[in-house]
Structure formats: structure tokens, C-alpha cells
Amino acid sequence: MKTRVWIVIFAALIAVCLPLAFILGRLGGGHIANIYRDGKCICSIDLDSVTEGYSMTLDDGEGHINTIRIEPGSICVEDANCPDRVCVNTGRITGGSKPIICMPAKLVIRLESRPAEGFDAETGG
Amino acid sequence: MNSQATFGKNKGLGRRGKLIPALVFALILSLVPGCAKRARLELFAMDTYMELTVYGNKAEEALAGAEYEIKDLDGKLSATDGSSELSRINLSNGEPVSVSSDTAEVIHNALIAAEPLRGALQLTLRPVSLAWGFTTGEYRIPAEEELEELLKLVDDGRIRVDVGSNTVALPEGMALDLGSVAKGYSCDIAAAILQKYNVSGFLLNMGSSTIMAWGKKPDGGRWRIAVRDPAGEGYAGVIETDGACVSTSGGRERFFTGEDGNTYCHILDPETGRPVDNGVLAVTVVTESGLWGDALSTALFVMGAEKAEELYNSADMSPERRRFEYLFIMEDGSLVLSPGMEELFTPLGRFAEGGAAQ
Amino acid sequence: MSVKRLTRLAVLTALALALHVLEAQIPPLAPIPGIKPGFANIVTVWALVALGPLDAALILIARILLGSLFAGSVTALIYSLAGGTLCFIASLALRRFVSEKQLWALGAVGAIAHNAGQLAAASLILKSAAIWSYAPVLTVSAIVTGVFTGLIAQLVHARLKGKTSK
User: Fold this and answer.
1) Minimal CB count within 10 Å: which of B133, B332, B350, C160?
2) Best to test chain A binding among B38, B47, B53, B208 (most A CBs inside 10 Å)
3) At residue A7, what are phi and psi to the nearest 5 degrees?
4) Which residue of chain C is at minimal alpha-carbon distance from B51?
5) Nearest to A25 among C126, C137, C143 (CB)
6) Shared domain check, A73 and A38
7) A125, part of any domain
8) What is the ipTM of this complex?
9) Which CATH number goes with the domain that contains A46?
């Protein structure tokens, strides 16, 4: 085969893969919903392992109540008693880098990739 | 003239020919500096599979030193190896045995660690453990009378250790098993050696039941130790720490199903001589010292969550190094965390759903 | 097996192993597992072209087995074997289509196949297809690193040509 053919093949592969890698990178590659309150992760949910949707209520003890809805592969705030309801209006997130933020409740929900290899060790007895 | 031309040509070729290898070499070199040296070791010792990772300039030497100590301790503290120092104590028929300072120290320190644990940790449980077959794998359920007789041999108060002359005396018939604390103690010893070499960080995984993380991770993040879900395939959560010992005791790693259909775990309640059956699946504790962590996780597994909370709040814990945080994973799927553990622990999977919502 | 051949295999295995260990000392180039130079493939590519498939396979297998003893665990061995096997099969299949001045292409194809093998092993072990989302970025990195290592093999081959006897 001619060298030119090889160059074209690899250039084409890179031309296809580079944008694809960029898009997939933006998706985050993972489906772990991390819920932060005041910067601290209070809860991690692997959305890939969710088989049946359910809701849970987060109460910050200062009167802010957010009801989170978890579905296979997605998460949203379905109800909140904050005045602006930005968190509810953000809607359902399934990927990308857009987090759900509720300023009054200091709540951030972010989809992140935290594969199992991210652990340094495993404990069990 | 001719020779000159040839010379010139050769020179030209040589330059071009050397340029690419030189560039390649420069590229490789540019990648090497700036990275913290890492040394890794996997070894089988103390009936388990250990993984030790050390970062720092003298990581290799430091790790070799730690490996030597761990293997040495393994040889001294093995209960199954008939020639170990521990076996010599167990076969001493009540005569004082002179041992190495390591062996005297681990027994001495374990007894001190057990002081506030209300008898829940007994090094002298070995005769009972033997009767159940946990040491040999030939499991059976001993009769009530047999256990009663054997329990008379369980009393750590009768161990005499002299750390000055390095002698240990054990009354006839009694036997020691240091399995519950040997890995934690080795962790402490290994950590001291590694720190002497000024390493920047290390992770000692002594077979998942005892893990010690210390110092800096090369990526600058905190150490992340996953806690296995004892009842399933996945994780109960993750503990994030800047450096600590994480020790876990659970009943699901070694257990057997008796002829009566019940399952019996390998951790025995020194009070009854029977396997612990109190609704606890596993206990994970976070401490500073490996020995203390190992002693605690075993004792808390025996005590259960309520007594653990009492212990946590009691004044016995006043020395700084005895501070601890605990995490119970219960059979009913609930988690019981000490207040400080809530800072360190993030639940995952099925435990994330309700438990952390607060 | 002649003493000469045995010696050559041993030396090349040692060389591949040394490159493999050297690579393990280099910090990850990117926070994505699998992006690495793959220096050891230099030896595989060269051996395949200069010595033939059998010798190349022997060196590869010895390097993988010994390499996981040095640097990794059992899972590392599985990943290594999966990647190495697929890389070898792909390189072997394409050997007829590349000239001696196109070994860089062989390196790139081998690197892509290597990553595909590792991804397949990872998706089986982790029971998750999500890992394949790494494929595009790994392919790009494989082309870059593969061309690089292939080029080295090509230069080495050009230098040693005629100096190696079968």
C-alpha cells in the first residue's frame, strides 16, 4: 500500500475520533450523580445501577427542602420550596457538565465519572 | 579530494542519522523527571495478599526495608507455623519463654489496646477457635459443655509479658492467636520504617482488612478507600482521608454453614465462645494506629453498635491516639456512623438512597 | 532451538521488559487509563518484521508474563494479555501490506488494536459498556504513540538490516 494511503487512513481516523472524543469527554463518560451541600458531597448515586425510579427528600435543617427524583440514567429536582425554583426549572440532567444548583439550599447536583478504579484501596473483612 | 568528499558525505549522513534518536531520547527524558518515584510490592504474608505502594525519592529502599520487617513479623507471629515464636509460647506448658522484642511488644501493646474494650478482644481465644475449626478449616459445632470447659482457658489477664527482659509466660493449656492484631501492628512498624526514609506518601493494603494511607498522593488528592458492601458485589461507600488506618472486621469473609443450617462467622464472642450473631455484617474503623484499629474493629464487631457508641463517648478514649471513628453495616441494610465518620464517609449504591439524605 | 536464537530471544525479551518497566515509571500522560507510549511495542514490531511471527510472539508472551510480575496484579495481566494478543494479530494480518518504510503504520495499527483489546477486557471485567466511550480518545492517542514507536522500530530495522542473520 502506498504511504499516502496510510496517511489518509490515519488522518481520517483522527478526524472522526477527535470530535467524538471531545463530545464524549463533555458527557463526562460516567453516570454517578454526586450531591453536594455546602461543598461537601453528601450522597453519591450510580445512575447506571438504578433499575427503578425513586424520590428522596433532602432537608438542610434550615427550612430548605428539595425533593430529588432519581431515574435510571438521569436525575432532577422535582420539587423545592425555594423561592426561585431554579433547581426545578433546570430539569432533568443525563450528562454533560451542567449541574443542578439550588443556591438557597446550597445544593449542587453534578454528574461525574468516578469509576471503581478511582479508589486507592478497598476495605472489607 | 575524493577522500575529503567521502568524509563530508559521511559526516552529513551521521548528523541526520543521529538527530532522530537524539530527539527520541530527549522526549523520553523530558517525561521522566518531575514525577514522584513510585515503588510497588505485592506479597503473600500473614495468610493474606498485601499490596504496598510507596511514593518518594527513596521509595524502593524504604519499601525493601518495610518488606523485610513484615516478613520477619510474619515468621514470628504465625500461630500455624510450629517454629514461630508465638508457637513456642503456645507450647511452653506454662514456662516463661524468651522472645524477640517485637513479639513481646505486640502482645504488650495489644493487651493495652484491649484494656478499654471490655473483654471483647481476647488474644487467648485460640483454644475455642480451634474447637470450631476456624484455624484448620475442619468446621464443627462444639457442644455447650465443651465450650464451657474451653472458655476457662480464655483470660488475657493471665498473660505475663515483660517488655524489659522480653519474656512471655502463658499458663498451661492456654494459647494465643495474634491474627486479629498482627496486620495492624505490622502496618505500624512498616509505616515507621517508611517515614524514616522520608517518603512522601504510602498506601499499605494488608489484605483489605487493614489499610493504612499516609502522606501525599501524587495527584494531590485525598486517599479514597472504598468500603465493600459485605452483602453484595458493590461498595457501601467510600472513605476519604488525608492519612489514617482503615480497619474492617466482618463475618462474611470466613464463615461456614453448620449441619443445623445456620451460618457461623469466624469472629467469636469471648463471653459465649460462639460466633458473633448480633445483626452486624461488618465494622470499619478509622484510626491513627494500625494495631489500635485492628483491635477496635474486632472488638466493635463483637460489641455491636450500641456498645460502640457508649465506648465512643466514654472517657476511656482520652489519649489522642485512641481516637476513632466507626461505621457499622447492619444485616438490615442500615448504616450506623459515628459523628466524625459522617465527615469522612460518602455512601454509594443502595446505601446512598436513604441513608445519607438526613 | 539454537543457542543463538535462544540468546537473541532472551536479549530482546529483556529489552522489551526494560522498556515496559521504564514506561511504568512515567506518570500518566492524561487522567484516562490506557494513554501511554507503549515503548515495548517497538520490540514487537521490529521482531515481527525482522525475525518473523513466531519469535515475535514468544517475546511478546514472555514480556507480558514477566511484566505483570514486575509492575502489576492479576487484572493487569489480563488487560496486558488482551491488548497484546489483539495487537499481535492485527500487526500480523497487516504485515503483508506495509513496506519496510511504513513500519510506523504497523505501529499505529498495533496500538489501536492493543487499546481495543484492553477496552474489551475492561468492559468484560467491569461489566460495563460505558468504558467504550473512551475508544475515540484512545484511538487518537494510539495513532500518535503508535506512529512514534513504529517509527523507532522502522529506524532500528533500517540500521540493523543485513546485520541480523536468521
Assistant:
1) B332
2) B208
3) -60, -40
4) C73
5) C137
6) yes
7) no
8) 0.79
9) 2.60.320.10
The amino acid sitting at B38 is R
Residues of chain C contacting residue B42, judged by C-beta atoms under 8 Å apart: 73
CATH of domain C3-24+34-160: 1.10.1760.20
Looking at the complex, report in whole angstroms how far the Cα of residue A78 sits from the nearest Cα belonging to chain C. 27
In this prediction, residue B5 has a pLDDT band, given cuts at 50, 70 and 90, of very low
Q: Identify residue B235 by its one-letter amino acid code.
A: Y
Q: Residue A18 burial (CB < 10 Å; 0-12/13-18/19+)?
A: middle
pLDDT tens-digit profile of B270-287? 999 999 999 999 999 999
Question: What domains appear along chain B, each with residue ranges and CATH number?
Answer: 80-178 (1.10.3980.10), 222-358 (3.10.520.10)
Claim to verify: residue A56 and residue A102 sit in the same structural domain? yes
A chain contacts of residue C131, beta-carbon cutoff 8 Å: 115
Q: Name which of C100, C143, C151 to mutate to probe chain A: the one with the most chain A Cβ atoms within 10 A of its Cβ.
A: C143
- Domains contained in chain A, number: 2
CB-based contact A10 C126, cutoff 8 Å: no
Taking the CA atoms of residue B101, residue B104, residue B108 and residue B113 in that order, the dihedral angle to the nearest 10 degrees is 80
C-alpha cell at C58: 514468544
Q: Tell me the count of A-B CB pairs closer than 8 A.
A: 96
The per-residue pLDDT for range B100-133, each reduced to its tens digit, is 999 999 999 999 999 999 899 999 999 999 999 9
Pairing of strands B48-55, B201-205: antiparallel
In a domain, A67, yes or no: yes
Contact (CB<8Å) A31/C98: no
Do A21 and A78 fall into the same domain? Answer: no
Burial of B75 per CB tally in 10 Å (0-12, 13-18, 19+): middle
Contact list in C for residue A20 (CB cut-off 8 A) is 136
C-alpha cell at A98: 451542567
Please indicate, yes or no, whether residues A71 and A18 belong to a single structural domain of this protein. Answer: no
User: Which residue in chain C is spatially nearest to B35 when comparing CA positions?
Assistant: C27
Q: Strands A65-71 and A74-80, how do they pair?
A: antiparallel
Instruction: Give residue A91's domain range.
Output: 31-114
* Amino acid identity for residue C74 in this structure: V
Cα distances (angstroms) measured from residue B318 to each of B229, B315, B339: 32, 6, 17
Cβ pair B354:A56 closer than 8 A: yes
Lowest-pLDDT range of A90-94, B59-63, B98-102, C93-97: A90-94
Task: Express each pLDDT in B314-336 by its tens digit.
Answer: 866 666 668 899 999 999 989 99
B→A contacts (Cβ < 8 Å), by residue, are 51, 203, 205, 208-209, 211, 213, 217, 223-228, 230, 234-235, 237-239, 246-250, 252-253, 282-284, 297, 343, 346-349, 352-354, 356-358
* Helix count and strand count (H, E) for chain C: 6, 0
Write down the domain spans for chain C.
3-24+34-160
Question: How far is Cα B9 from Cα B14, in angstroms, rounded to an integer?
Answer: 9
Strands (E), B127-180: 160-162, 167-169
Q: What residues in A contact B283, CB-CB < 8 Å?
A: 125
Q: Which amino acid is at B296?
A: L
Query: Which residues lie across from A36 on neighbouring strands?
Result: A41, A108
